[in-house]
Amino acid sequence: GAGVSQSPRYKVAKRGQDVALRCDPISGHVSLFWYQQALGQGPEFLTYFQNEAQLDKSGLPSDRFFAERPEGSVSTLKIQRTQQEDSAVYLCASSGRGQGRGNSPLHFGNGTRLTVT
Amino acid sequence: SQQGEEDPQALSIQEGENATMNCSYKTSINNLQWYRQNSGRGLVHLILIRSNEREKHSGRLRVTLDTSKKSSSLLITASRAADTASYFCVPNPGGGADGLTFGKGTHLIIQP
After folding, report:
1. Per CATH, which fold does B5-111 belong to?
2. Contact A102 B88 (CB under 8 A)
3. A101 interfaces chain B, CB cutoff of 8 Å
């Protein structure tokens, strides 16, 4: 596809369940980012990959959050033992060129809206 | 990390009017980017302005950058209903060590 694809579009989980959110970046894009966006707020940075290397995971809110990008393309964000405060939209973005984070525009997917009940 | 602070937080204008949003940041930057987010959608990149540029245009959008004041502005001319969205500025300090942090944005409403 031409853009960043995220699935599922919506996810409802019961508290305590594990969830896995998928991101298909634009083909060939080196950099991949995950953000968390609460209602009415701006996106909060979670983690950053350059190819398969996770270079920054400083934004992950707890050790229940885990992200991977094993082959340098598709990425999965996993949340274990979900809690109500995890309810948010999770956005994935990719960028090309790999000249350093922030030096080329981010292309965002439409996000996965996670609701924890 | 550095995030931009957008001002105002909310702005409502009539269709056809111009809309101006401002952004301030704290430390030196390599570039600054503006993004738009329509309700329920992902963010769309609008403009990237480099630290050695003072003004940049893209269609009805005009972005200015004043590095001495650590501020930027986004002007949308001849606004349309489809411009209703939240707008975010993202200052990038460069160096690959940090950046790409979003603030709360300016929520722009265009009244028909």
Report:
1. Immunoglobulin-like (2.60.40)
2. no
3. yes
